[in-house]
Amino acid sequence: MVTQHLCDELARAIACVLQEHRHADRALKRLLGPLPPHDERRQLIARTVYSVLRHLRRLVWALGEPETFSAEQIGRCIRAWWVLASVPMGKALRSGIPPRSALSARWDNPPSRAVRSSIPEWLDRYGAEQCGNRWDALLAAFETEPHIVLRTNTLKTTRNELLEQFHRRGIAAAPHPVAPDAIVLSEYVNVFALEEFHAGLFEMQDAASQAIAPLLDVAPGMRVVDACAGSGGKTLHLAALMKNRGRIIALDTAAWKLAELRRRAARAGASCIETRAITSTKVIKRLAGSADRLLLDLPCSGSGVWRRNPDGKWHLQPADMERYHHVQQQILRAYLPMLAPSGIAVVCTCSIFPDEGERLCQTIASSSRWHVLDTGRFDPSAEVEQDGFFWARIQQR
């Protein structure tokens, strides 16, 4: 049974996410850190944090309160969510919370689309303008809970072998219907406590993200630059596709992310990866014309992953869209020249917005130097477990 202490801890963590723009996964890591790996409370804590962030405005509406998003109000939202989700609670915790019937009646009748989908009003207007007929379906997808998706590390095992290991453990796992190396878990599992994780047999990576690296059509022996590598999910996938033969240069401006990539690469057995921190423009210029393949996973709104990371919709501000556009243009101008004359670049964003996709490509295509070969988009979906991504393949003219 949940306690007042747990509710207070969760409320403080969620308040920090909202008010101090902290990442929910890091706040959750601190909450889960003291708990044993297989403690049953882990699932409840994770689900509560993400569900309250996903449905915050709708929960406040169900409570019949004006929006303040204070820690006290977030605490009531947590308890309201527990009531709606039939989490066992004592009478003291239910105090001050409307009965389930009253909560459900207001929950089922929100006053607007923005409240129903728990997004800021400005973002609802922006999304409708950007996405048109797609917007309602996208919002509906963001309201659903995602499943855990893993990528099999084919340097060490196959998807069928990994599925067999999971089934022997009693883990409900199934092959993803589209992504060839992906596995979907239908129930919560602390995957980071599994022996298979520590042995480097898989990484957590969404199916749409897994679709990006194959677009580069890499082969063993190639020289590949992943120029916005971050902590390396796609970098590791490239290493597996190259069978760990060749050279992958992983670049990023954040040295701490590259340190995490090195740890992940060691676990995965991917020795073909070299990390370089971007400390000046010289790092980029030295690689001019050298990449057989170039991956540019551009900084963006992150709107494609709001189903999985609902805190992102609360961190975004109207001015950020113009800032991201400026940064994207800067990166394209500075980084695309790393591509060799016969090479292929893939530019992608984890965004649902055309300003960070199709319209970004129009800028590239207007250049006399670059030719857009083809483009594609994945939209978040509850039917096919995937996040949102836009991608374009580019060559020199």
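Second entry:
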Amino acid sequence: MIQSAVILAGGAGARMWPFAEVRNKCAMPVANLPNVRRLYEDLAALGVQRIVVVLGSHSGSIRHALLGVSPEPVFVDQPAGGGTAGAACVGLRSLPDERAVIVYGDVCVAPSDLRRVMDAPGETGCAGAVLVDQPAAEDGADWHVVSLENGRLARIVGHDAGARLRWSGIAVVGPGFARVLDANPGRMMAVPVGGMPPMEPDFAQSLNDWPAEIVAVHAERPVVDMDKPWHVLQANMAVAERLTSELGENRIHPTARVHDGADIAGCISVGAGSEIGKRVVIEGPAIVGDDTRIVNGAILRGSNIVGSRTRLSDYCLVDPHTVVGSDCIVGHGAEMSGVMFDGSYLYHYCEISGLVGASVDIGAATVCGTLRFDDRDAEHRVRGRRERPGAFANASYFGDHSRTGVNVITMPGAKIGAYSCVGAGIVVYEDVPSRTLLLLKQETVTRPWGPDRYGW
């Protein structure tokens, strides 16, 4: 049984703009829980007794996300220039033995698959194990892909276009592996012809160099490596589907109130002090936190997760698999499809489709365009690279602590940076940089007018 783990939570998350400016991407909320905490609690529930967390960028967000967890984590700092291999090595050296599961902290994985990869070495007699999957809408050129021989890992290749089997960022390692990490060549050597790996020690290269038998475990549930903003939407919706589908019966706290006039289909979980009011429609399973009010005709389309101290009211519409955070408001006639982080507000007649960061203030009648005139997916720029995501390309992305004025329209794929404001009446065609105020320059014509114009 694996009793030790290392969570790698030090990356800068440059591809996650605009959502990694206020937090480490491993602290990104998934179903209203920071992903690193979800991983930590899942590992602890599987019997892991020693967990080392390797810190780097925005380390405070990781420490805060893990406040109060048990067992108490051991925090170590990622060495400068050490890459993922250096991070794994310093984490592994902090444990009493080298048999451990190494998990990238931005990977969203079901506990059942985590258990299967941890159990695999003992069941097969192999020294190690890796979790692999086949992402439905991603290109192998964006990931570390794997080749297998008789169910065993043959090789991990960096960013090989056309490959369909991906390493998920989870591996079980054993004695001798730390020495292999120490000897990492400083770059990913297994690349396609013409491949251009950065000069950064890569953990996957050390898996290739380890002279041990490594069994490959195929994931049965979706695995999401949260590298870019649309992956956050994928992760949240996958977890919302999983958690709500596991509700076999209603779980209503004794202090919660569910009005007889609410129309509810499917099982619901309702936290302490919360209220489901009359004329509310819930069309499928839903999980509601504490002290939340869903009242006056609010409509939830099912497989929804709603946080604590939130209000959904006045005939708002929440689409299937949408996750709404804590301390949020979705008000009169507002429509939400996607994910809202904590503390965000949607008021009158908004139509929002995408990812809304923390403490975002969406002005009345702000609308997200979701369909281009050419019916194609929007093109995104990620660190200068042109990309068309396989999912959520046409969503809009509102960075943390941003604001919009009334009647703002975002075109498909638009991103608004963190700490930015978009003034009233603007159509956002291009990404708005962080810490930017965007105002509409208006020309007006002033002429004399009065009763004489009407013949008086």
